[in-house]
Backbone:
């Protein structure tokens, strides 16, 4: 069947590129998640978390090409960002309490 190899090569390249682009989108969004959580402004989380979710979906496309590591990096980065943001928010509240009392 003519064109099959070219089509498979294209889809593999496209899904790999999409997964790599997901990493570029997720990195600043995860930094924003940490910053927003650190200042206790949960109302501002909608946009950064939306970008992270879209990035996770884009990275999942790369699994079809055997390109799984962007999904793992974004997933782990999300966990670290949420934990780090919560940790910074707790430290900030402790500092504020000590200054007040």
Residues:
């Amino acid at each position: 069947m003519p064109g099959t190899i070219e089509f498979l090569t294209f889809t593999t390249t496209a899904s790999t590129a999409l997964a790599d682009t997901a990493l570029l989108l997720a990195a600043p969004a995860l930094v924003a998640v940490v910053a927003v959580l650190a200042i206790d402004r949960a109302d501002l989380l909608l946009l950064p978390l939306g970008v992270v979710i879209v990035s996770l979906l884009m990275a999942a496309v790369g699994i079809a090409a055997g390109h799984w590591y962007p999904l793992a990096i974004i997933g782990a980065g999300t966990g670290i960002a949420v934990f780090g943001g919560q940790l910074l928010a707790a430290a900030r509240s402790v500092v504020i309490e000590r200054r007040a009392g």
The CA atoms of residues 22 and 54 lie 8 Å apart. Helices lie at 4-38, 46-61, 69-100.
